[in-house]
TrEMBL record:
Keywords: 4Fe-4S, Electron transport, Iron, Iron-sulfur, Metal-binding, Transport. It comes from Candidatus Gottesmanbacteria bacterium RIFCSPHIGHO2_02_FULL_39_14. InterPro entries: 3Fe4S_ferredoxin, 4Fe4S_Fe-S-bd, ET_Ferredoxin. Transmembrane segments: none annotated. This is Ferredoxin. Its cofactor is [4Fe-4S] cluster. One of its GO terms (molecular function) is iron ion binding. Ferredoxins are iron-sulfur proteins that transfer electrons in a wide variety of metabolic reactions. Residues 14-42 form the 4Fe-4S ferredoxin-type domain.
Amino acid sequence: MSVNPSGSRKIRNWTLTVDRDLCIGAASCIAVAPKAYALDNEAKAIFLDTADNETDEVLLDSAKACPTAAIIIHDEKGKQIYP
Ligand code: SF4
């Protein structure tokens, strides 16, 4: 397994990153965007291959739902959109 299996995922124009150090496994992101994330065996969020089936709006909402702001979103120019 790689060092950071949560890592980053490019979804359309955005790049989403789960910071494993910040993720506490609260699973709020999964409740909002169940096609985008799952918890791995360390209770950290990882991206699912079906993540691009979630709309941008839902993905943004999933980042906003994270209690520790562990989901970071950048646009195609590298500008941070959230948090
Ligand atoms: S909501 Fe945040 S803390 Fe909870 S599993 Fe998702 S990324 Fe981790």
